[in-house]
Amino acid sequence: MSLLIVGATGTLGRQITRHALDRGLKVKCFVRYPKKANFLREWGADLVAGNLNNVQSIEDALEGVTEVIDAATTRVTGSMRIKDVDWLGKVSLIQAAERAKVERFVFFSILNAEKYPNVPLMDIKYCTEKFLASTDLNYTILKPCGFFQNLIGEYAIPILENQTIWIGGESSPIAYMNTQDIAKFAIRTLTVKETERQSFAIAGPKAWQPSEIIRLCERMSGRTRKTANMSIGLLRFARKVALGFEFGWSFAERMSYAEVLASGIPVDADMKETYKIFGLEEEDMTTLEAYMQDYFSRILKKLKELDYKEPKIKAPF
Asked: Most CB atoms closer than 10 Å: which of 1, 70, 90, 256?
């Protein structure tokens, strides 16, 4: 087995890489900037430079590869448009994998993507699901709801820094999951025959409302927060303004994802059958309470150490 991981430097991709290496798999990572991916090489992975908009680099990376896990997506802060990576790039990757006769292809979509045709990222994810299903590839589509790791920047850090947390519209409860646990599903997919040419929702133990996450972070940190509501109407107006300028197109596309978060539609799924198929146990998955407790314990300890190591300078007056 020779595994190629696309998007290996991302929040999810690096955890898949680590888990695959821990399982003794031969791993090759397809990266845009090898110098920024040295940590993957240090873990034991081979690096191959390229990008999804360069077909030749994809074909070179697929040489000798039997399995592909695609965890790539456009970064929230990136300048590339969603269509460039999440549609054109993915189509090129899937077609190249088909030509290379890859034995297994794992694609990460997003749960409920089909329900939001007016949200570019969701629409493209769903279109990619359909395109992949039309090929002869032995594929599996995994559809997570959201990552624990993303909640650090959205909630934990603003609370620690006494910043305002913005909540928009009728917030949707989301069953976030630790990317380390999602990685287990990805690697299991490669050897579980029942996952062939199938799609699976990947949901955490509980769907959380923003207000619940805020209260959890307050309890773990011992600090209170400031919140402010932003109406979905205001978000839509800001998106229309951004669309009026070419430099704002990428930003506007990402802003449209707020429609999903503020729709009020739960992003969750029953995982009993999925756990059974993958041979995994829900009891072994990390809870958000445990994840946040670990984060705040570490960060508060570091902050305390910094306060101790950096004595206050007395004013000369």
From this structure: 70
230's tokens: 């932003």
In a domain, 312, yes or no: no
Between CA 42 and CA 35 the distance in angstroms is 12
Residues 197, 201, 207: CA angle, nearest 5 degrees: 180
For helices 179-189 and 13-22, give the axis angle rounded to 10 degrees. Answer: 60
User: The domain containing residue 20 runs over which residues?
Assistant: 2-300
pTM attached to this predicted model: 0.87
Q: Is residue 305 part of a domain?
A: no
- Residue 108: CB atoms within 10 Å: 25
- CATH number of the domain bearing residue 277: 3.40.50.720
Q: Strands of the chain (E only): list them.
A: 2-6, 26-31, 46-49, 67-70, 104-108, 139-144, 164-168, 198-202, 226-230
Domain count, the chain: 1
Decide if 316 is inside a domain: no
pLDDT digits (tens, 9 = 90+) for 107-147: 999 999 999 998 888 999 999 999 999 999 999 999 999 99
